Amino acid sequence: MIHFDKVTKIYPDSSTALDDVSFSIEPKEFVSIVGHSGAGKTTLLKMLMAEEEPTSGKVFFGSTNIHKVKKGELNMLRRRMGAIFQDFRLLSKKNVFENIAFAMEAAGRPQSEIESDVPHVLELVDLSKKIWNFPHQLSGGEKQRVAIARAIVTQPDIIIADEPTGNLDPMNTYEIVQILKKINDLGTTIILTTHNKGVIDSLKRRVITMENGKIIRDDKEGKYNL
Amino acid sequence: MLQSGFVNFWRNGTISLSAVLMMIVALFVISSVLFVGALLTSSLNQIKDKVDINIYFVTSAPESDILALQKNLQAMPEVKSVDYVSSDQALQNFKDRHINDQLTIQALAELNQNPLGAVLNVKAKEPSQYEGIASFLQDNNLISKNGAPIVESVNYAKNKVAIDRLTTIISSGQKLGFAITILLVLISILITFNTIRLVIYMSREEISVMKLVGASNMHVRGPFVVTGFMYGAVSALITIIILYPIMFYMRGFTSAFAGVDLLQYYLRHFGEIFVLLVCSGVLIGGISSYLAVKRYLKV
Hints:
- The complex is a heterodimer.
- Chain A is of the alpha/beta class.
- Chain A has one domain (28-53, 81-219): P-loop containing nucleotide triphosphate hydrolases (Rossmann fold, 3-Layer(aba) Sandwich), CATH 3.40.50.300.
- In chain A, 34% of the residues lie in helices and 27% in strands.
- Chain A contains seven helices and ten strands.
- In chain A, the strands form two sheets. Chain A has a six-stranded mixed sheet with strand order 6-7-8-3-9-10, with helices on both faces. A four-stranded antiparallel sheet of chain A has the order 2-1-4-5, covered by helices on one side.
- In chain A, a hairpin with a 2-residue loop joins strand 4 (56-61) and strand 5 (64-65).
- Chain A is globular.
- Chain B is of the alpha+beta class.
- Chain B folds into two domains: 2-47 and 167-294, no CATH class; 59-149, Alpha-Beta Plaits (2-Layer Sandwich), CATH 3.30.70.
- Chain B has helices at 2-11, 13-50, 63-75, 87-97, 102-110, 130-139, 156-201, 204-212, 217-258, 262-268, 270-294, and strands spanning 53-57, 79-85, 119-124, 151-154.
- Chain B is elongated.
- At the A-B interface, helix 2 and helix 3 of A face helix 1 and helix 8 of B.
């Protein structure tokens, strides 16, 4: 479903973020990417979202080369991916309902569908009571659950989660991971980057370990090993 | 899109307020340019109106010849008006002017006949056209049918220096006014553009999130442009309201100075001013937003 083909990324300051990286992800997989800060995890995900262009190599989503699609098609492609970030990246001037509705509006869904789906997905992340709150009125864990709701509401093929638990306490971390697991069980592919040993060890899923822009391990049922 | 534009405007209270205030300043500059232009035009017109050429006729000139000349002059395209003052009327005017000057009146009474000839007062449409009229008068030999000259003097030569100077002043005044207008309008547009750019700079994170969620450029941009329209419309309305008391306060000063009652001018041209301010506000706001969002769409 996703294929990195000899991808190298060298930033303008000539630091190498990715060095000849190749791997594939199958549908319905739950893949964790671990590594120290600066190992290239975030760059890898940015490649996938087409936020960054590779210096060389190709990234495929299905049979589509992500960096060769036109502007309009890129929007369509991104609607098939749900992104979750460490810093949540909610729209601060919109309330919870509007934040989630925005992703659906962007995807061109009709108002009636938005009105029925948003409460439904908030139920899934257990935030129905906070539907009219603004982001600044929510705790970190709640914000991240809104972000997850936003990511899944358009029923994407894949969820890309960049250190989603990085700013959260152990309790919230556990909850977020449980939600991601549930989404994966419902059939959505998930790519997760994290520093958290406990998260990786409890997941017992595929783990890709990176160091200095290279993949040094790729284990089917891996543990946090750095 | 409309709705979220309105909601943006309302929720970003202080930011909207500052953008609106900046735009009021800009629109104010635009409208003062308008009023200063009106003042300038009317005072220039007043000055222009005071310039004319007088053709003094000899006392023996037959009235029919004078009226014929008046007709000829009126037929010239550069002539605005030709007033005929008959010699009787000239005498009456003279008497009126010297009503308190007994000596002059007495001296006039000593004469048995009217010493004053008829006069034609010629006004051109533009001060620069007097030269042409004067040369027309020179070229046409102004002689009556019986061969005697009818014109005693034309005072163009005497006024020439003053008229020439005035012509230069008026035309350079208009050029300068035009240049200043363009400059001020440009500056105010730039100020507004920069303010809106700052407002949108603060939203750059949000714009990138919208793009990552898969929103099309139009979907991201729409609400910002609507908000820009609203900045323009709201500031135009406030500017129009503020202008009224200012015009009221200025009216005495401007009617004494330039002969224009600004309040009257404002009320008479209210429709045009309203349309001008609202349109320029909405256009500047909308276009600024459109351009300012552009640079953050490249995610």
